[in-house]
Amino acid sequence: MSSGTVHLGLVGLGRMGANMRERLRRAGVEVTGFDRNPEVSDVSSLEELVAALPHGGRIVWIMVPAGEITRGVVTELAQLLGQGDLVIEGGNSHYVDDVLHAEILAARGIGYLDVGVSGGVWGLENGYSLMVGGAAADVERVMTVFDALRPEGPRDEGFVHAGDVGAGHYAKMVHNGIEYGLMQAYAEGFELLGASGVVTDVPGTLKAWSRGTVVRSWLLDLLVEALEDDPQLASIDDWVEDSGEGRWTVDEAIDHAVPLPVISAALFARFSSRQIDSPAMKAVAALRHQFGGHATKPATPAP
Prior knowledge:
Layout: E1 7-11, H1 15-26, E2 30-34, H2 46-52, E3 59-62, H3 68-80, E4 86-89, H4 95-106, E5 111-118, H5 123-126, E6 129-133, H6 136-141, H7 143-149, E7 159-163, H8 167-196, H9 202-208, H10 218-229, H11 245-255, H12 261-272, H13 279-292
Parallel strand pairs: 1-2, 1-3, 3-4, 4-5, 6-7
Antiparallel strand pairs: 5-6
Helix pairs in contact: 3-4, 8-11, 8-12, 8-13, 9-10, 10-13
């Protein structure tokens, strides 16, 4: 299947969805997008979106908030689509929800793939890492779409068919748990450098680590970028949200008796950010904004 023959329906045109639509279109994939915000939507309803897709194997990708909103879209699509169609769910859903979503759609002969998507606001230019769960035949059917979205280079360095339904979101859940730990380590190092009084150029020290050291990474680069804009992170409050995936990762570790001391501590550190003034949590908040466009809270003015 060539990219020119693919016509994808995309539900949800927020930070990720809108950029994904643009990247797909640049690659020659025809995309019809629907969003509750009429200013960014190509059609005015899910019904119009489905009607715009060619019959004989329609494909709809969902990129809306996890939970009841996703469940509602899946349920509605189950009534609008039919035998041989395919739904792809690319939000940050809990993997256990995927089994139910697949069952709802399978009752109507509709296939289902769950996809963990990582890349944040940088995905438009850099591509998205894709972790897919579902049947191999369904994965192969939309490989042109996956190839358009993933980073350039070898396919296996930005894409994986991780397993059956649920595996994609499970992989993304663990990915985000690791992300919690990595951000927390950089953030704590940032705080210690500043507290010591020995190091007088904290941003410069972190920048010096960005080449040649074993701790270099894209996350470190993003922290350096945040510090170049605001060396003390004075404009950012130390309140840090958690998306839910860190909690799910720790829950899974408990269920399987797998020790996750670093990831667990990073999750609890986010809870502590809501109680105390913390330079480390300012750094975590700044990192989340840099890579994902997540909102930060303005710093509370000093009394």
